[in-house]
Amino acid sequence: MRGLLRGRLGTAAGFALGTVLLLGVAPAVLPVFSLGLLGKFLCFAIVAVGIGLAWGRGGMLTLGQGVFFGLGAYVMAMHMKLADASLFGGSGVPDFMSLYGSGEVPGWWEPFRSPAVTLLAVVLIPGLVALVLGLAIFKRRVKGAYFAILSQALAAAFAVFLIGQQATTGGSNGLSGFRSFFGFDLKDPNNKVMLYLIAAVVLLLSIALARQLMHSRFGELLVAVRDQEERVRFLGYDPATIKTVTYVVAAVLAGIAGALFVPLVGIISPADVGVIPSIAFLIGVAIGGRATLLGPVLGAVGVAAAQSALSSTFPSFWVYFQGLLFVLVIGFMPGGLASLPALLGRRRRLRTAASTPAVPATRVRTPLAAPPEPEQNATMPEEARR
Amino acid sequence: MTMPTLLPDGEPRAGGLRHGRPKYLEVRDLSVSFDGFLAVDNVNLDVIQGDLRFLIGPNGAGKTTVIDAITGLVPATGSVNHTGTEILGRKVHQVARLGVGRTFQTASVFENLSVLQNLDIAAGAGRGPLRLLRRRKTVDAAVEEALEIIGLEGAAGKKAGILAHGQKQWLEIGMLLVQNSDVLLLDEPIAGMSQDERAETGELLRRIAASRITLVIEHDMDFVREFATSVTVLAAGKVLSEGSVAQVQADKKVQDVYLGSSEVEATDA
């Protein structure tokens, strides 16, 4: 049975189950408002898939995914602002520009009038920025805490930059008040459901992509780079290339998630892309289990849902709770909740080994306790130490 | 079994291959300086394909630093020529791609990956992006052969982290084989091994060295006597002596350096 679950059939069944839940059950049982909220959580989950790859598998503590999330989001928001201005205002100039700026659309906004350019830019701009950053960082062998600090500083700088550009990016207000999405009325509940469905499909696709990467030779190499970067060099690989590719994939996923976030939530502002949201992206991944395929997804959705439920009741308390949760998980359960079955299994084995000393306490091959989803069989608790 | 591609026919011998055009490693005036301290001082060294050369010397003689310099890990001056190609001044992964492979004093395999995955990664530096993005379904013939040579056929699916110390070192040597290195630089491969494991490692070196350029750093003089075809003695960063084990042990300078050092009984030649 377990062998069956691990195989291709199990994977197909897992994906089918996910598809039915996300695309069938959720839209049928949830009201439109909750569906929009779930869609927002799914956007965070898409970011989390990328972080799971980069951090869980690649060992790169990406504390600045808000930058790429923001790039994708602002590209989409600029397009929607321009489209709204043409559709409803007639002038083609977004409302806030007349309020705070010269009333003229800056040249660098113009390309985003085109829907095709916008869709390409959502993928290409975060990807290219990550490519340049990745090459600059990893070729110079910046890693570990230095990489984490650098990426976080980038998120801080990006938010500060956006706040400073009141006339062209809306400053700290950000961009909001969207009325249409590629010609569809955003007030129409059917279109809201459609937006949710798009986010769900994108999430399923990004999980499939992450799965392929994890199980490919590239994925094995990535784990090797994470654990022994120098050793990989002596085998004739340049670890910088492998890390950069992974970083770019994570950035593109974050960018796409940002672009979906804007029509779903209706606003993008520096508060959604700075240091705090960047860390928030990470917490779900850590709690769920960063080195697994589904851990980051479930963790991200769970933490976002908890935040949404708790922060309305205890607004100031949530941030402390979030920080505490992060410290506890990193400190005591570095493999996240996904490592819980294996941890419990090991404790049970230790106890039985202690009570029956006749059994030699050799290293028993840890059969990973059967988790609910087949993909979680990829859990490797030991590898999460880094 | 598959065609033998990794194992040569004969045994290594002093001076290396005597026919054809043997490959070689030619080190000239190699110097490494750490903040003004000359760790390696104008070292000259020639190793010919088919020779099983041991590099010995007291602690701090610069043996490991020589290997570090050859593999591009530490910056060095001078020249290291691998069969016509200058390899000094290149990056570590470029040197590795030119066929220079090494192991480390503390076995450094990928502990979270299986033995098979370790070997597969070692064999794959030349793979294109498309092959990398696909799942590993078949086992390369070279990997299969290497598993057999290093005696780990039965452990292919085990995580490398749970291997015994000796097995880890053998896995490292297997990785060098599938990596297609023609220069093998082994840093104390038998340190910490049991007597049986030492003998097996020695036999393994004998089997693979005839077609390769092999340089082994070693402290254990019994092991050196048994398996070396030639020896270079390094002391204080300089080459002190070179030749067969008997020649080196008879060398007065070598005896002087080793007297007072407990690790080698150099005088009983």
Describe what you observe in this structure:
The complex is a heterodimer of chains A (386) and B (269). Chain A is mainly alpha-helical and 386 residues long. Chain A has a domain at 9-274. Chain A is 70% helix and 2% strand. In chain A, strands 1-4 form a two-stranded antiparallel ribbon. A two-stranded antiparallel sheet of chain A has the order 2-3. The radius of gyration of chain A is 22 Å and the shape is globular. Helix content of chain B is 32%, strand content 23%. In chain B, helix 3 (115-122) packs parallel to helix 6 and helix 5 (141-149) packs antiparallel against helix 6 (165-178). The interface between A and B is medium-sized, with 26 and 34 residues.
Keywords, separated by commas or semicolons:
heterodimer; A: 386 residues; mainly alpha; two-stranded antiparallel sheet; globular; disordered C terminus; B: alpha/beta; Rossmann fold; four-stranded antiparallel beta sheet
- Count of distinct strands of chain A: 4
Order of strands, widest sheet of chain B: 6-7-8-3-9-10
For this structure, what is the CATH class of chain B? Alpha Beta
Output the structural class of chain A.
mainly alpha
Number of domains of chain B: 1
Shape of chain B: globular
Oligomer: heterodimer
What's the helix-strand series of chain B?
Answer: EEEHEEHEHHHHEHEHEEHH
Given as residue ranges, the uncertain stretches of chain A (5+ residues, pLDDT < 50) are 357-386
Order the strands across the largest sheet of chain A as they lie in space: 1-4
CATH fold assignment of chain B = Rossmann fold
Give helix % range of chain A. 55-70%
Percent in strands of chain B: 15-25%
Overall outline of chain A: globular
Describe, in short, the structure shown.
The complex is a heterodimer of chains A (386) and B (269). Chain A has helices at residues 2-6, 8-29, 32-57, 65-89, 95-100, 115-139, 144-164, 166-169, 189-215, 217-227, 229-233, 239-265, 275-288, 295-313, 317-332, 340-355, and strands at residues 175-176, 180-181, 184-185, 267-268.
